[in-house]
Amino acid sequence: MNWNNLGDCKLLIADDDAFNRQLIVALLARVPNIKVIEASDGLEALKILKQNNIDMILLDYHMPRMNGEELLKKMKSVAELSKIPVTIITTDESEMRHLYTLGANNFILKPFDFKELRLCIYKHLQKIEGNHNICRV
After folding, report:
1. What's the pLDDT band for 42 if we cut at 50, 70, 90?
2. Whose CA is closest to 36, among 52, 50, 47, 16?
3. For the whole model, what pTM was predicted?
4. Distance CA 43, CA 70 (A)
């Protein structure tokens, strides 16, 4: 993988589990050109999305205050946010079809493997795959 081809990217991780956020931040720490921003719930993520030019969001489905589905709906209703690719992080495959119809682009199933997660992020940012991907990691 040649991450240098990506240019500068901002990736938002919205997950109420601090350990999961730390794992993803550590995983991407050595990747050049990617700035990772963290949010602990959907409301915080929405605020960050409105204040930053985010290139991709990794969005946990189950969060307090505003869950992943609610945030996805809000994003798709705001023109500036509607084009940001959204990858849902979940343990629940049963929600996939519904969330695709709401505009989710990818799914990463927990527990995830670090190499597979990096590959999924890379492929998504490179737009190598189609609009809807399930990253079975």
Report:
1. very high
2. 52
3. 0.86
4. 10
Residue 39 near residue 66 (C-beta atoms within 8 A): no
């190598």: which residue's tokens? 128
Residue 125 token pair: 């940012």
CATH number of the structural domain 3-135:
3.40.50.2300
Residues 88-117: tens digit of each pLDDT:
988 888 888 889 899 998 888 888 777 778
Q: Distance (Å, rounded) from C-alpha 117 to C-alpha 126?
A: 14
pLDDT digits (tens, 9 = 90+) for 65-84: 999 999 999 999 999 999 89
Answer whether 5's CB lies under 8 Å from 34's CB.
no
CA separation, residue 110 to residues 18, 75, 78, 88, 135 (Å): 15, 23, 29, 10, 10
**83, amino acid identity:** K
Q: CA angle, 100 as apex, 93 and 135 as ends, to 5°?
A: 55
First to last CA, the chain: 17
